[in-house]
Amino acid sequence: MSAQPPAAERRRHTDVVPAISVITPTFNEAENIPELVRSIHASLNGIPHEIIVSDDDSPDETWKVAETLAESDESLRVIRRFHDPGLSSAVLDGMATARSDVLAVIDADLQHDPAILPDMYSRIASGELDVVVGSRSTAGGGYGDWSWHRRFVSWVATLIARLLLRVPVSDPMSGYFAVSRAAYEKTAPDINPKGFKILLEFVGRNRNLRIGEIGYEFSNRLHGETKLNRSVIRSYLLGVAELRVGRQVNPAFLLYVLVGIAGLLVNSAVFTLLEALNFPEVNTGLNKAIDPISGSFLVSVQVSILVLFILNNEFTFWEHRYRGFALAPAFGVYWVMSLIGTGIHVAVFTSLQNIGFLLNVLGEGPSRVAQNLIGATIALVVNWYLNTTYLWRRRQV
Ligand code: GDD
Ligand code: MN
């Protein structure tokens, strides 16, 4: 006998051992719970199962609705959580208390079709697979009436996961999946409980899992509204970055670099365009040594400062972002910091132009676009320091 008797412990208090535990994370889903429970029972008719509602003390009292139902439904259990709110940690808590050898996760709003639960169950119970993903992107799957915009975002996110993490899943953002107890116990200790991409955590942390997919059609939400706001994309990218490079690298810096690259592209595009249009030189009257300055350069820098501020505020430093009236002074500070960066940018740009003559003697010197890029890159690193120290402070969260 093994030293640890988990199965016996888990099963001691029950008459019928459930074959599958269906965990549903909830936040303000009171209206959806009765229908959800009904349809899971209907789908798993004949397979002993338990349903675990893992609720974050919802203001709409989802937990209470579920507890009332549980009075006359032995297979329903409710966790009312008061700490560490969040989708992934709610799922992990549900899994920790589940008793079955197959653990499934399903959204409470009936966007995930419970009809495929028996299929998910049997493919794990048979020992064929460790993880089964309910997928919108595989045969039999679909995104329902999602707009092209949401489909595109989802497509990009999936591509990123597939390219960077090489996960063999067509729908890695899916919140609908089942996992074997063995795979859960092996993988759970490594999982980051923050965020919402719990499936990605499983398949990204454990490379030895046998993964399969079953298609399903994503439905519209029955009642209520989505809790996943704009920051999902950001949180998703951070999650992918963490899975890729580990927890040592400051993930916000990775986002900053990403935004910086976008800024460089904007800068180069505007610069190239204005150069092509023969944009006039500008005489600032400030310094004979640097006058006249390329007008294309001046304008492209202003445009990229504005774009960078917006992207950093809305994306990189989202948790600390400025809103409403605070935006103007924040942009003012950002602009001054960017001037410092621009000073460095100009210095590098002009000195590269001056030594360009020398390099041209030896061979082909860097083009104006390349000189511009090198200057901007150095400025970007200096600005990271200024931004995180004085503007979007690294508050302790
Ligand atoms: N306990 C708990 N705590 N549950 C939460 C929380 C939370 O902080 N946030 C969301 N939930 C629950 C919701 O109540 C719902 O049952 C489920 O998690 C999914 O949340 P939705 O708000 O319905 O998300 P969605 O429909 O926008 O997103 C779906 O698609 C994403 C990818 O496209 C979900 O399936 C996501 O998991 C998926 O990544
Ligand atoms: Mn939903």
Structure in words:
The chain is of the alpha/beta class. The chain has 2 domains: 242 residues, Alpha-Beta Complex (Spore Coat Polysaccharide Biosynthesis Protein SpsA, Chain A); 146 residues, no CATH class. It is built from 13 helices and 7 strands. The protein has a 7-stranded mixed β-sheet with strand order 3-2-1-4-6-5-7, with helices on both faces. α3 links the parallel β2 and β3. The chain is elongated. The model has no long low-confidence stretch (mean pLDDT 88). The structure holds guanosine-5'-diphosphate-alpha-D-mannose and manganese (II) ion. Guanosine-5'-diphosphate-alpha-D-mannose (GDD) binds next to β1, β2 and α4. Manganese (II) ion binds next to loops.
Please estimate the helix content: 40-55%
The CATH architecture of the largest domain: Alpha-Beta Complex
What is the element string, with H for helices and E for strands? HEHEHEHEHEHEHHEHHHHH
What's the main sheet like?
A: 7 strands, mixed
Q: Say how many strands there are.
A: 7
The CATH C-level class name of the largest domain: Alpha Beta
Q: Low-confidence runs (pLDDT<50, min 5 residues)? A: none
Q: How many DSSP H or I helices?
A: 13
How much of the polypeptide forms β-strand, as a percent range? 5-15%
Assign an overall shape: elongated
Which homologous superfamily in CATH is the superfamily of the largest domain?
Spore Coat Polysaccharide Biosynthesis Protein SpsA, Chain A
Average pLDDT, rounded to a whole number, is: 88
Spatial order of the strands in the main sheet?
Answer: 3-2-1-4-6-5-7
Q: State the secondary-structure class.
A: alpha/beta
**Could you tell me how far the N terminus lies from the C terminus, measured between alpha carbons in angstroms?**
45 Å
